[in-house]
Write a structure and sequence with these properties.
binds S-adenosylmethionine; single chain; four-stranded mixed beta sheet; 2 domains; extended; Rossmann fold; alpha+beta; two-stranded antiparallel ribbon
Length: 189
Amino acid sequence: MNKILKGDCIEQMELIEKKSIDLIYLDPPFFTEKKYTLQNRERTKEFSFDDIWGSNKEYASFLNDRILLMYDCLKETGSIFVHCDKSGEHIIRSILDKVFGEKNFQSEIIWSYKRWSNSKKGLLPAHQNIYFYSKTKNFKFNTIYTAYSETTNIDQILQRRTRDKHNKSIYDIDEKGRAKLGDKKREFR
Ligand SMILES: C[S@@+](CC[C@H](N)C(=O)[O-])C[C@H]1O[C@@H](n2cnc3c(N)ncnc32)[C@H](O)[C@@H]1O
């Protein structure tokens, strides 16, 4: 069943059963120290949110309180993905390390985009970060298989590998020197 809870997430999370959530995707204010105002398509409604904190400490405290509750809501097999950018990534990373543990950092997705401008001194921002932490080592991960790209050498992928006497990984060949085939790779579903 899908449900949308509206309001400050710190209050809404109190309504969620502990250890009941599989996956959290968090797209919090980024610590840009700006106020954002958006309008709907018809320009009849205005939405705004404030991303002004005044100090690293204020921002860290806001997120820390909420990420602690998120940790409690996650199942032992659950994970969190946190979206941020260069403004607050160092703060978010240290909170996640503390709450989830450095060992449960799984990986980082780099969300890259292109912008062209010569008006800014220095390098233009061209990516955002999405940190992936699991609650425990025993996290659930549903692998999605896609079709091989046209440039993939499937013959090479299907060749069985073995180890030589120096424990180096090599292609396995039969007595006639022909490549042995390994298990069939999973197909795109
Ligand atoms: C970086 S924006 C994410 C926008 C969103 N992903 C979207 O595509 O519309 C941060 C969002 O967090 C919301 N927000 C800020 N403080 C919040 C809080 N305490 N509880 C819930 N949402 C909050 C803001 O209103 C804003 O929409």
